[in-house]
Amino acid sequence: MRRKLAAGNWKMNGSIPALDMIGALKLKHPECPCDVLLCPPAPLLTHALQNTAGSPIFIGAQDCHAEEKGAFTGDHAAAMIAEIGATYVIVGHSERREGYGETDAQVAAKARAAQAAGLTAIVCIGESLQQREAEEALDVIKAQLAGSVPDGSSGETLVVAYEPIWAIGTGKIPTMDQIAEVHALMRSELQARFGDEADSIRLLYGGSVKPDNATEIFALNDVDGALVGGASLRAEDFSPIIEALARS
Ligand code: PGA
């Protein structure tokens, strides 16, 4: 059985006072049947970890470098993220693929570095609107999955997030059939590559997940949770999403 995951990606938002929302989540979900993860910006990770102490809420980073150390000003190594007690790292988010030109090979190298450091890598993939309209979405997903997921990945070390670029921060989401189609494809591609181990790899949907659409999305086969941006910033929004996942 895959344990469901509600993951929050704060992007470049938040502050030390904003981390108080973790206290509210702890009170609301003392024994959640699913995993809850928050990924605040790197300078807030240590404070976030202090706030989650004694709770089952996990903390993760939003990116890591593929190298162990060196002259990479502004970057951080996976081992540094693990050393402070964070357990996950997002890699290959479309904002990094688009804004920094990250390729599938670079994303795979980052995921490999994360896994080697003992972190679970959340590998993000997803098509653009143009690719969706040209009916290329499934081919794009297949290629990104093959190119961005490292060999030897397992349910412990890998989570895949399907995030159509056009759904991120726009309030638009694909149809339920489209989400189900992509998730079924991801599962079968992972099965072809990793055999039975693929059944333990969690597949998240991301892109404008909100309290009012979460229940419908979580009812779909092979949707094991969500990667949530805007709606993960406040407990009032994130908590109902966690509840919907717990009920699913
Ligand atoms: P959104 O972002 O929920 O604000 O659309 C999702 C993401 O980019 O991970």
Structural summary, described in words:
- This protein has helices at residues 21-28, 45-52, 78-83, 94-99, 104-116, 129-133, 137-148, 176-194, 211-218, 235-247; strands at residues 5-9, 35-39, 57-61, 88-91, 120-125, 158-162, 202-206, 225-228.
- Helices cover 40% and strands 16% of the residues.
- The longest helix is centred in the C-terminal third of the chain and has 19 residues, at 176-194.
- Strand 1, helix 1 and strand 2 (35-39) form a beta-alpha-beta unit.
- Strands 1-2-3-4-5-6-7-8 form an 8-stranded parallel beta barrel, surrounded by 6 helices.
- It is built from 10 helices and 8 strands.
- The two termini are 13 Å apart.
- 46% of the residues are buried.
- By secondary structure, the protein is an alpha/beta fold.
- It binds 2-phosphoglycolic acid.
- The site of 2-phosphoglycolic acid (PGA) has 13 residues, from strand 8.
